Amino acid sequence: MAPTIVxxxxxxxLELADKILRSEDRDHVVQTxxxxxxxxxxxxxxxxxxxxxxxxxxxxxxxxxADASRVVIKTDVPRFERxxxxxxxxxxxxxxxxxxLFNIGGSAKRNDRGExxxxxxxxxxxxxxxxxxxxxxxxxxxxxxxxxxxxxxxxTKTKGDDHRTVATVVLRQFSDSEVAPSHGEGRFESGKVTIxxxxxxxxxxxxxxxxxxxxxxxxRDTLRSRDIWDAIEHNEETTTGEERQAIEPPQxxxxxxxxxxxxxxxxxxxxxxxPWDKSDRPEAAFQKLVDCVWQQIEQANPNPKLDRIFDYYLxxxxxxxxxxxxxxxxxxxxxxxxxxxxxxxxxxxxxxxSATPIEGKNQSSIREIxxxxxxxxxxxxxxxxxxDLKLARPIKFRNLPTTSHALKRPLVFIGKCDEAFSKIKPxxxxxxxxxxxxxxxxxxxxxxxxxxxxxxxxxASGTLFDPTFxxxxxxxxxxxxxxxxxxxxxxxLDSALNIDRExxxxxxxxxxxxxxxxxxxxxxxxxxQKKASSEVRSESREQVRGSRVGAIQQIASQVWxxxxxxxxxxxxxxxxVDSEKSAPRKSDAYVYRRSSVxxxxxxxxxxxxxxxxxxxxxxxxxxxxxxxxFGLIDQLTKRDQEVLLRAIHSILxxxxx
Length: 657
What we know:
By secondary structure, this protein is an alpha/beta fold. The protein has helices at 13-22, 39-44, 52-65, 94-102, 112-117, 217-223, 226-237, 282-298, 306-309, 312-323, 366-370, 426-429, 477-480, 509-543, 551-564, 594-597, 607-629, 638-653, and strands spanning 4-7, 28-31, 70-74, 83-87, 151-157, 163-171, 191-199, 207-212, 256-257, 263-264, 343-346, 356-357, 383-386, 389-390, 411-419, 433-441, 452-457, 483-491, 574-577, 590-593.
């Protein structure tokens, strides 16, 4: 006999409990639906985003979804007391603003309500009125500002309206010991809003301005890099014999301010140290910001890290440029020719497939040969300005510095996939997954934060580069440090993105599939790169036949080869010079002043002493290369490297009794 099933269509908590009590055996079953308490969304406004950069990213994404072509952000750098974000998007009508304020977490994007409010396309609720694929989906992006402030102002106007709407918002700060005010039907108060309308003179003007007042002290200190400057100030005030913190000022910074917001000279006679000039145009200024990272390689810093080069503000600029839908600073990889500057291959989607060379004709682009579409709507203009800079994706593919690696040209691997999951129900698979991707191998990837895989959904990303390549377990650390990858998702994966858009649900079928695909692509890359390296190394051996490497260098070379699993790779050059002006220009060289790593005051006199000193110096170089093989040198600052090498040199110099 089939059990009796009682359906609870619009569940009432007390009625449901009563029905459960009456279902005393398996013959009486109660079915209902899961409900979400809106207090969860109310707490979202208390700040789910981790950094100030996350808040600005969400506001830029909102402008993009509103069909803006230009976003201008002023941060009041270096004080950061007030931040404004202005766009020329569609603006918000009173109806749209009312829906936003009354439905936090209930976005009208991607559903039927969007068309009625004029914020989505009548043809496709997943697109903006002008056809852009929407980034936002939940309806909490505006309230990401709680990371920066608890009070802000919205000034918005739609085209044809002779009034602008102004709303002043004061967000509620929740505590664990209080109960949020409830207004019935699951609604909870997230803050207070004051709204009014003002006469506008330009009916055709449209857009939205967000004014962030009273930046929170913690956010302001983060933007000011106060943790770094406080440590440096402590060192400056420390007397001889007291403990000093091992920290160096970033090479490039916007300056430091005291608690009153007044600037003062952090180093020497300069208020700030920037890679661009005030007279530079915004495009040129950002280009210089990108170039200064690659120039680090040519200045005896073979593995530049952003957190050592830049202060927080400049790192934030870099991260925002990576995260939002923008053109590349030197062009999209897909628009570059298939030959002449790199060797290009197409990846196989088969489980044990192999990458095949891409043959182009008449300098045809990779996009044309393979049939790629990213980015969608290539003629769609979207510009973002922050203070003195016009942002672009800070990723370079061509005209990179030369290294000692036998392979002199990059290897480019292109893939695309469209998986329908036809054998799995859509509610279980998440639906269709379509993406395009590249894996770019080069002897040097800079900055080190770009060594990894980055996933973009409809052109946007909050995850940045994942150095584990989605938990790739094969021990090929050197090759992974020489690889950067971007995956451009055009369909799917959205539902796997966590609420802060900065991480994924790793158990989601789309993430599982994408992980498997990426790991297969990495294996194909390794196979091609090893083969190419072996061929080049064989040619190199023929050219240098008859020459022998010293016993000391052989040891270092063998350790490097064992750790890198790359027969074409050589250890980075280590140079000990009397002056850094005489340093070599190899991009992967470690360069040290002789006075910093040796006992410079002890000069060898006799030929025997000179020979011994030369051998000790060669041993020091080889030990440095061995440490670099395990990635240990790059974990230290330049100053700590010098201290370590000086100690090792002293040990090597110690004579036996």
